[in-house]
Amino acid sequence: MVKRAESRSWLAVHSLATALMLSLALMPASAAVAEETAAKAPEMTWHNVATANVGGQAWSDVKAPFDRLPARAEKIVRPEVWTLSRDSSGLSVDFETNAAKFTVRWKLNTPELSFAHMTGTGVSGVDVYVQDDAGWHYLETGKPAAYPDNQVDVAAPRGRDGEAVHYRLYLPLYNGVSSVEVGVPAGAKLKFIDPPQAEKPVVIYGTSITQGCSASRPGMAYPAILGRRLGREVVNLGFSGNGKTEPEVATLLAELDPAVLVIDSLPNLSPELLAERMPGFIEIFRKSHPETPILLVQNPIYPTIPLKASPYEKVMRSSELLAGIYADRVAAGDKQIGLVAASDWSVDGGDATVDGVHPTDVGFVMLADKLEPQLREALKSKL
């Protein structure tokens, strides 16, 4: 027994020595491979997105580069609204590059990468679209893997290497970013493209649904979908759980000069609060913009509406009240106001939401489908 134990001990020592010698022998080779890989990696030129004219950003006097409200709003709106305004929902940047491959890197503001009812790619990720003769086409998603730093490599579309290609980068919906950069190999060209200056933007004020909950990725929030379809800048002023139609927010909106104002805040309003606040909210904006089209959006018909009494009563009552507010304004001579009928998420088995309230990508497409025709008419001032 002693001899066997000694034999095993000798074998263990011998194996350890052999492994050590082998690893030492391989170290120079491994170092050489690492050096060779580093030498092959192209030198990158990084372009700071904060220097670009960010699409979907209505104010320039912001506290941080990717905020959605002006810095002074911190002392005007409720703290909850201000905090949500630091999320980069709806912000995007267009750029053109001839690089065969480029890298996007972004630094997140908060460590909560995802929610129980919303994916990390939607909450904290980025989306890249490419423009071709048919319009905009999805290309790549940057998946958030850590806090705060993330990056994604993006290859140019097949067959377009060396060609100057137009891209759009969408920023996170429910997280903020302190920095965003696009890197291209040394020698490749990149230039940022400003949003169209000749055309006024569409501004959408609303709730968590407007902000983008629960889109699978940033490009699938309905304001982003509408922006691509209409070929126009869209400003996303959705504030999750806090689209309370407050006069302070209406006063800020009145500072802007949109082509159309969309008010989509019913999901955050009780019928009583709707009746109390909506008429004054509209009037504050209308005093500064007598000819700007306003679209009032009825509450979505949630998939449980046919089955549960409580949401049915609230949703139906709110939509009826909004229709009455719309009718009163028309009767008072407002010719530039429209009413958008509710998007019905109860159809086809009710599969358009993740939790009965917040839409999936399917629900967001349904919302865009409902809004698009009236937005096009409003943009032609033919309500």
TrEMBL record:
One function term, GO molecular function aspect: hydrolase activity, acting on ester bonds
Residue ranges of every copy of the SGNH hydrolase-type esterase N-terminal domain listed in the record: 44-189
Alphabetic keyword roster: Signal
Keyword Signal: yes
Matching SUPFAM superfamilies: SGNH hydrolase
Boundaries of every SGNH hydrolase-type esterase domain copy: 199-376
Pfam families: GxDLY, Lipase_GDSL_3
Gene3D superfamilies, A to Z: Galactose-binding domain-like, SGNH hydrolase
Signal peptide range: 1-31
PANTHER family per UniProt: SGNH HYDROLASE-TYPE ESTERASE DOMAIN-CONTAINING PROTEIN, THIOESTERASE 1/PROTEASE 1/LYSOPHOSPHOLIPASE L1
Protein name in the entry: SGNH hydrolase-type esterase domain-containing protein
Organism: Lacipirellula parvula
